[in-house]
């Protein structure tokens, strides 16, 4: 925009004053045009159109890493009880660059209702062969802990927080299944950012249809298929990066346990 306005000013100067050859007069006239261009650019910026340099920079976030998580679970119509996690994906998102640095992704063998329903397979894209013979939730949680340690996320000097699309994953699903199986819930699962709330704070509207509405509101292409845990995680990460590019700073939305 600045280059365009500057070149326009130069052309106008040549058209309006083709016979002016005095260097001093030319300099003064061009200075007037430059000040005009600067004023117009300032007005554009005040309306939310930042320079390319400003748009490419990201604001400092409160966390070193965001851990994007989206469970898929056994389901049917009417709903079966208890529900069990069958896909457990996590993306490690760098809080400075908002780029994905590492991925944890496992399928989980359900034990209460080991046979997936046709409704569940149609919704999530997860077929029976993808969960048969896979580790139990207890085993997957142990591997999550190992992955967290390997990635340096258990270091008390490293600030990280989980991010989910809604509160269901970490407020209802994981603690509910752990309670049913008599398993402890690690402290790092007890605080998170609800992306729906973050989006509504940033944009001013509530995304009734979750990721689909957020992608539409930000003019983003939806990644993969809805209700695939790993695809949903990639959509969450993409939305977070876009909001950060707009200057949004993410904050914890969950209440302490």
TrEMBL record:
It comes from Micrurus fulvius. This is ERI1 exoribonuclease 3. It comes from the Eukaryota. InterPro entries: 3-5_Exoribonuclease (IPR051274), ERI-1_3'hExo-like (IPR047201), Ribonucl_H (IPR013520), RNaseH-like_sf (IPR012337), RNaseH_sf (IPR036397). Its cofactor is Mg(2+). GO terms for molecular function: 3'-5'-RNA exonuclease activity; metal ion binding; nucleic acid binding. It holds the Pfam family RNase_T. Interacts with PRNP.
């Amino acid at each position: 925009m600045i280059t365009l306005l500057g070149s326009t000013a130069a052309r106008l100067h040549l058209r309006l004053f083709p016979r002016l050859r005095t260097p001093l007069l030319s300099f003064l006239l061009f200075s007037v045009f430059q000040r005009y261009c600067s004023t117009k650019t300032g007005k554009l910026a005040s309306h939310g159109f930042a320079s390319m340099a400003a748009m490419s920079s990201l604001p400092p976030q409160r966390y070193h890493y965001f851990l994007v998580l989206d469970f898929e679970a056994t389901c049917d119509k009417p709903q079966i009880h208890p529900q069990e996690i069958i896909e457990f994906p996590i993306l490690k998102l760098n809080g400075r660059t908002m780029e994905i640095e590492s991925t944890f992704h496992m399928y989980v063998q359900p034990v209460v209702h080991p046979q997936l329903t046709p409704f569940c397979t149609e919704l999530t894209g997860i077929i029976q062969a993808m969960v048969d013979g896979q580790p139990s939730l207890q085993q997957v949680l142990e591997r999550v802990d190992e992955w967290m340690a390997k990635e340096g996320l258990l270091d008390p000097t490293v600030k990280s927080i989980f991010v989910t699309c809604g509160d269901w994953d970490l407020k209802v699903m994981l603690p509910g299944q752990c309670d049913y199986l008599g398993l402890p819930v690690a402290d790092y699962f007890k605080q998170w950012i609800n992306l729906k709330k973050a989006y509504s704070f940033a944009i001013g509207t509530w995304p009734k249809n979750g990721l689909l509405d957020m992608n539409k509101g930000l003019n983003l292409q939806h990644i993969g298929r809805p209700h695939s845990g790993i695809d949903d995680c990639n959509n969450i990460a993409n939305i977070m990066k876009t909001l950060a590019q707009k200057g949004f700073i993410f904050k914890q939305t969950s209440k302490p346990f």
